[in-house]
Automatic annotation (TrEMBL):
Protein name, as recorded: Acetyl-CoA carboxylase
Keywords tagged on the record: Plasmid
Taxonomic lineage: Bacteria, Pseudomonadati, Pseudomonadota, Alphaproteobacteria, Hyphomicrobiales
Domain of life: Bacteria
UniProt xrefs under InterPro entries: Single_hybrid_motif (IPR011053)
Provenance organism: Rhizobium indigoferae
Length: 144
């Protein structure tokens, strides 16, 4: 038997569909290289809980700091909601509650929150590209 690839968007979509069909509330899988948690939330469908943004400071000027928003799951990266007609320009100010992008798997679209207030300065992944769990997506420069 071969190992299941939990970073594969098709696998995550299949697991989500199976959970919803079986009426299961959720599933959590922990491995040394990461964690996947799928929670079925009633009429709202499934939601996948994202990890917090992680500190990142290489190459920055002394005294400045930034965080990198990472992909909470494997999927397709979107800078704006697929139904939105308004492009998101950079750099732009964001608050910790702002949605800065999305990761999609099948019909599931997971919003990515900034998690920290600051200036969204860089895209670290190509819009529309497939991304894996933990891949860096955005860099937010923190305000001092």
């Amino acid at each position: 038997m071969s190992a299941i690839d939990f970073s594969d968007p098709a696998t995550i979509a299949l697991l989500t569909e199976a959970l919803m069909a079986a009426g299961v509330d959720g599933l959590e899988i922990s491995r040394p290289d990461g964690q996947l948690r799928i929670v079925v939330a009633g009429k709202d469908g499934a939601r996948i809980s994202p990890p917090e943004a992680t500190p990142h400071a290489p190459g920055l000027a002394p005294g400045s700091a930034s965080v990198v928003v990472k992909a909470p799951m494997a999927g397709r990266f979107h800078v704006e909601h697929p139904a939105s007609a308004a492009p998101q320009d950079l750099p732009r100010s964001v608050s910790e509650a702002d949605i800065v992008g999305f990761v999609g798997v099948g019909h599931i679209l997971l919003p990515l929150r900034a998690s920290r207030s600051g200036v969204l300065t860089r895209l670290l992944a190509e819009p529309g590209a497939p991304v894996g769990f933990g891949d860096p997506l955005f860099e937010i420069e923190l305000q001092s």
